[in-house]
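Check out one such.
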Amino acid sequence: MRKKLALLLLFLFPLLLFSGKDPLWQRAEQIVKTSIIIDAHEDIPTTMLNEDVSVLRNKGHFDLPRAFMGGLTAPCFAIFTNHKYDNNHPAEFALRELANVYEFAFQHKDKVLIAYSYRDILKAKEEGKLAIIITMENSSPIEDPSQLLLWKRLGLRMAILTHMKTNKYADSSTDEEKWGGLSPEGKEMVKRMNQLGILVDVSHLSDKAAAQAIQLTTLPPVASHSDARALNDVPRNLPDYLIKAIAEKGGVIGVNFFPYFLSERVKGPWEEFWKKAGELRKQYGKEADEMIKKERKKLPNADIKDIVRHIKYMVNLVGVEHVGIGSDFEGISMAPRGFEDVTKFKNLVYELLKEGFTEKQIRMILGENFLRVFKKADEAYLKGKGSAF
């Protein structure tokens, strides 16, 4: 009988732990419920081209029901344009994505609003709505810096000059150097973004380009979805000196959830997978898709503790006021265990509480830090608006 009781308790303990009986778990749920949660990078607009994200889906990382379940306040919807469009009407593709975002907000105006200022984020929290912050990943659709004013009017709040390839504005961290950092047009873009209160996002930029953008910007610089290179040496992660440079100018780094960026133990197998996938595509073309899917399922994953590790590292390096969340949801092929989608913010809060973070610190990481820089950008724009235009 005692043996059976012991086995029953062993089985029930995890259920009790995560059913609100654990005081730490209760605190985590309360923090999520009352916090402003800003995810600085989600690739939802690309998903929206083929999927209805207003209904509960059995795949991906985001949809409207799950966003409300998870307590998300304001996801940054990244208007992403593949580099294949860089010289083939990129604005046309980007505007199609943006039109979808606006249509989504219009169709669900009882639940969703577009955040044109930091006040709209506060309003959404107050009204129990989702605030969409419009951002851009790869600025090729802005074919000239003079077009930025139009994009500002369309709601653009933050932009990355390039993506995986070097473009006319900047060198990419994952491509060959062309400009030695920013191009002359890239520097002009940064100046114009400063005038318009559009945050300069240095994720994806080469180290030289990021350093130049950080130095040039008069607004707080951000890295919307980047991890610490000291913990995992990959080009997309930030070296300490860039993390410090962002912090010195009052900026914020959003920790990215992609397992390859998070964990050194994952890096090798993923690099082998990409090499093998390339060979399979060369040999079999589109027929390789299923083989590649099977190989991907075998890959090792990171977990939520790896996210916490990067948060702790950056907090210790530059202070809690410079660290946030930038999941890269819908843009990553695998999410870490424990943070599989937008319903899991409470899991992160629980882990941070276990690590000794205070409620105030956790609220800053969840969204208050990014809210602060959006507010700074709005204030700078309003202050200079009269003389600039």
Summary: The longest strand covers residues 130-137. Residues 111 and 260 are 34 Å apart (CA to CA). The radius of gyration is 21 Å.
